[in-house]
Hints:
two-stranded antiparallel ribbon, mainly alpha, transport
Amino acid sequence: MEKRVTFKSSWLPWLLLAPQAVIIGVFFFWPAAQALLQSFQQQDAFGTSVQWAGLENYRNLFNDATYLESFKTTAMFSLFVAFFGISLSLFLAYFADRVTRGTLFYRTLLIWPYAVAPAVAGVVWLFLFSGSIGVIAYWLHNAGLPWDPLLNGNHAMALVIMAAVWKQLSYNFLFFVAGLQSIPRSLIEAAAIDGAGPWRRFWSIQFPLLSPTTFFLLVINVVYAFFDTFGIIDAATHGGPGKDTSILVYKVYFDGFKALDLGGSAAQSAVLMVIVIALTVIQFRFVEKKVNY
């Protein structure tokens, strides 16, 4: 039977919700409203003079070739991060779920990267692949594959993608392991008795049952690639070389805090917010139809 909590007074539920509502309003809606207002204004570097600019900031954005190029950079970056992050974590979770000895040890090792700060992850991967001191870069150089992410844009993009995937791998891994453990073993055993091999059992039984988890992680990884990878890019490449790794969120920071174009930066943040909301709605509108709950 369904149980419901009944409050004796009509104001008590609102009182209980008030602290969370205040936090959301102060730290989320108020800054978003301020950024939206600033996107229609022109300010000097110190914020002492403010002029109403209307849509001028938005017109300047879409006439800026570097800003339009950052759309392409962001699309490629987020696609690779989401795809490889989900694929590799599912691969690792599948084999970790099959391990019978040392399960806790292996799972602990795979969870550790989640405790690393994004900036630290960027620095670690930069040290590994640095053309002058990187161990992996040294091996690649000896193998006839010179590597320098500070000079080569493709190498820099590969570096930040690897760092971002590695940083998010633990988060995805946890959800996939939990999803695999929730699948009844009787289904797997019945398929094995019918002669289905491990590969067949995975694609016919386990993966379809993991579709809610996969869809959830798809949304989370897209948002992660758009926003939470700022620390990795700032620590590893600073958006370079040139603008080859300057994704949209990094360009918002660079134009606002380094170029001191506060109005243009606010307009970029508004556009970025609209893009992420649109992508999330599209995923729920079309991708979720293929999810089996």
